[in-house]
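Worked problem 6 (solution included).
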Amino acid sequence: MPEKKEDLRIQKTKKNIKETFLTLLDEKPLEKIHVQEILDAAKINRATFYRYYLDKYDLAERLTQEYMDTIAALIERRFEKKRSIFEIQAVIRTIYSYIKTNRRAILVLWKREGDTIHLYRDMEALLRNLCLERLNRDATDAPEFRDYFATIYATLVITTIKWHIERNLELDLQRMFAYVSLATQKVLL
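Solution. The predicted structure is:
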C-alpha cells in the first residue's frame, strides 16, 4: 500500500514551526527556549504544536534526525563500493551541495551541539565508522592503525566541510587536498 502523502497545510505548518525554532535556536541555547516563544513567533496555538511534537526536545531531535538521515544517505554512497577519484569527488560535491543548500539550519544545529542536538558528532561518527568498515574490508594495516586512520579521516573531512560552510566558500577539492597536504607537512616538519 503506498504511503499516504502529508497534506500541504500540515507540511507548511511543520515547516513554519521548524523555521521558527531554528531562528530561536540561533539566538539562544535550547534550554532557554520556551514552547510559548515558539508558539508566539510561529503564530500557532499550543494544540497545533503538540499535535506534531511532544516538546521542544522532540522537535530538536526530529529536526536533527531529518538532516542526519539525508546526510547519512549521501555519505553512505561514498563508501558503498570502490569508486574512482572522480566518482568520489562527485559524491563529495553532492554532500557539500546539500549542506550548503541547508547552510543556515545546519550551522545553527552545529552551533547548539549538546545532549539533544548532536548533528556534528553524528556526522563525524558515521564518517569514521564507514571509513573503518572500508579499511577493515581491505585490511592491510594493523587494526589500531585502521582505527587511527578512520578517526583522522573523519575529523579532517568534517572539519574541512565545517570550515568552508562557516565561511560560505565554494568547495574546491583540488585546493582542499593541497591545503590538507600542506597543513600535514607544516605540522610534521
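Discussion: The chain has nine helices and no strands.
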